[in-house]
Write a structure and sequence with these properties.
The complex is a heterodimer of chains A (about 120) and B (about 110). Chain A is an all-beta fold and about 120 residues long. In chain A, about 0% of the residues lie in helices and about 50% in strands. Chain A has no helices and 12 strands. In chain A, the strands form 3 sheets. In chain A, strands 2, 5, 6, 10, 11 and 12 form a 6-stranded mixed beta sheet that branches. Chain B has about 110 residues and is mainly beta. In chain B, strand 9 and strand 10 form a beta hairpin. Chain B is globular and about 40 Å long. Chain B starts with a strand and ends with a strand. The chains are: A mainly beta (about 120), B mainly beta (about 110). Chains A and B meet through strand 11 of A and strand 4, strand 5 and strand 9 of B.
């Protein structure tokens, strides 16, 4: 079974600085999808960024980028120019490929609570 | 476009009571899922559906029932609530061709 591990329960960063959140996963599959979700105090789950395992290029969305190391099974999230609005819980998630509608399982890590200091 | 809606937002139950958490989506997504979120444990999948009439168990299905009679709705039923079911419940939907799951605002359930 696949597992997702986030080893940093809490992180802190100064406004305008850069922070990296770690995520490792375990799988025997060669094709899969990885995600980072943000959960602010409002509780709403917001997709930050996604990565397909077959793509070697790291995904980027504005100030958010990932470092995807397939062999090491590592998927870290880098937030550049941190803003106060980035303060939230961040979840790493894994999804197996969906061949013919057989599954829709998203496996989450335990989350990293990010605080942004002004 | 409302996206994924959940009702109620908050609920308090006594042990042994039953209730249904409602979830609806207006994006014509075939896939829908229910998760629970507990402190220190992230989100865990309870049940999911890949289409009307098709449901399957996730990681923590015990104590919960689901059915999917329409594409839009995916209710979660607690037949006999237990304190261990105190949690925040999220419903999500997605298209088979897109991996992004769209989440509802969540329901905070307390069982006393």
């Amino acid at each position: 079974a696949q597992t997702v591990t986030q080893s940093q329960p809490e992180m802190s960063v100064q406004e305008a600085e850069t922070v990296t959140l770690s995520c490792t996963y375990d799988t025997s599959e060669s094709d899969y999808y990885l995600f980072w979700y943000k959960q602010p105090p409002s509780r709403q789950m917001i997709l930050v960024i996604r990565q397909e395992a077959y793509k070697q290029q790291n995904a980027t969305e504005n100030r958010f980028s990932v470092n995807f190391q397939k062999a090491a099974k590592s998927f870290s999230l880098k937030i550049s120019d941190s803003q106060l609005g980035d303060a939230a819980m961040y979840f790493c998630a894994y999804r197996s490929p969906d061949y013919g509608g057989a599954t829709n399982k998203l496996i989450f890590g335990t989350g990293t609570l990010l605080a942004v200091q002004p | 476009n409302a996206g994924v809606t959940q009702t109620p937002k908050f609920q308090v139950l006594k042990t042994g009571q039953s209730m249904t958490l409602q979830c609806a989506q207006d994006m014509n997504h075939e896939y829908m899922s229910w998760y629970r979120q507990d402190p220190g444990m992230g989100l865990r999948l309870i049940h999911y559906s890949v289409g009307a009439g098709i449901t399957d168990q996730g990681e923590v299905p015990n104590g919960y029932n689901v059915s999917r009679s329409t594409t839009e709705d995916f209710p979660l039923r607690l037949l006999s609530a237990a304190p261990s079911q105190t949690s925040v419940y999220f419903c999500a939907s997605n298209s088979p061709w897109r991996d992004e799951q769209y989440f509802g605002p969540g329901t905070r359930l307390t069982v006393t």
